[in-house]
Amino acid sequence: MTAQNPETLYPTALTVEDFKHNLAAVRQKIEAACQQAGRDPASVQLLPVSKTVNEARIRLAYEAGCHFLGENKVQEAYGKWQAMADLPDLQWAIIGHLQTNKAKFVAKFATQFQALDSLRLAQALERRLQEEGRSLDVFVQVNTSGEASKYGLPPEEVAAFLKALPAFNCLKVKGFMTLACLSPDLERVRGCFQLLRQLRDRLQQDAPADVHLKELSMGMSGDYGIAIEEGATVVRVGQAIFGARALPDSYYWPGSN
């Protein structure tokens, strides 16, 4: 069986109606996955991911109802935020790895940061957020695939990391994020999601008072149905909404192919 061309699988949305159609299809799949898992569809937030998408098309997506967007590269997101300052209710989540010297950008505009994976980064964000007089919702990134190329804390280091986070008053911990392995073996993919849910369930009881672990951000265009079956509360969907990307995932997720 030949793999389907991404451009056929994910046609590019070029009009408001295209975006409405794609969003409806994604939401229908979310509902089906929730029904399969016996979950309420309202318990799953759809986070459209607009990486590589230009301002003009983001404005069309906004008109179709996308008012909260995810971006991997913070400077790309920062530029879009500046360009679309006339849309004050358009909010941004940074979902990709962040270098400490770029914490200043996140602190200025992001509503959410989903890739917290070191105390050094927590310190940099805290310092910059204090300067801006802002707080930030954060997700702790966990490496559930065990791949050296992936960012995120090893599962066995998460409990100790959580205990250190109450020291950062500007960081509001909401849960965990993970990237599953990129594999045609769906059971391997499912295993990554199961590991994150089990880790959350185990650590929730003993988490510090100000550390909330309700949210599980997991699943992208190719696997969000499985992620929902395994407990995802946030799914990060890009290509199924905006269309196939010209650049491979390895450009955004270092080490992946």
Summarize the structure in words.
This protein has helices at 6-9, 16-37, 55-63, 74-83, 103-109, 119-132, 158-164, 186-204, 224-229, 239-242; strands at residues 45-48, 68-71, 91-94, 112-116, 136-141, 171-177, 215-217, 234-237. With 257 residues, the chain is α/β, with parallel strands linked by helices. The protein has one domain (6-247): Alpha-Beta Barrel (TIM Barrel). The chain has a 6-stranded parallel beta sheet with strand order 2-3-4-5-6-7. α4 (74-83) links the parallel β2 and β3. α5 (103-109) crosses α6 (119-132). The longest helix has 22 residues, at 16-37. Residues 251-257 have low confidence and may be disordered.
List strands and helices in order, with pairings:
Elements: H1 6-9, H2 16-37, E1 45-48, H3 55-63, E2 68-71, H4 74-83, E3 91-94, H5 103-109, E4 112-116, H6 119-132, E5 136-141, H7 158-164, E6 171-177, H8 186-204, E7 215-217, H9 224-229, E8 234-237, H10 239-242
Parallel strand pairs: 1-8, 2-3, 3-4, 4-5, 5-6, 6-7
Helix pairs in contact: 5-6
In brief:
With 257 residues, the protein is an alpha/beta fold. The protein contains ten helices and eight strands. Helix 6 links the parallel strand 4 and strand 5.
Largest sheet: 6 strands, parallel
Name the shape in a single word. globular
Question: What is the name of the CATH architecture?
Answer: Alpha-Beta Barrel
CATH class: Alpha Beta
- Class by alpha and beta content: alpha/beta
Give unreliable regions as ranges: 251-257
Supply the key terms.
257 residues; globular; six-stranded parallel beta sheet; 10 helices; alpha/beta
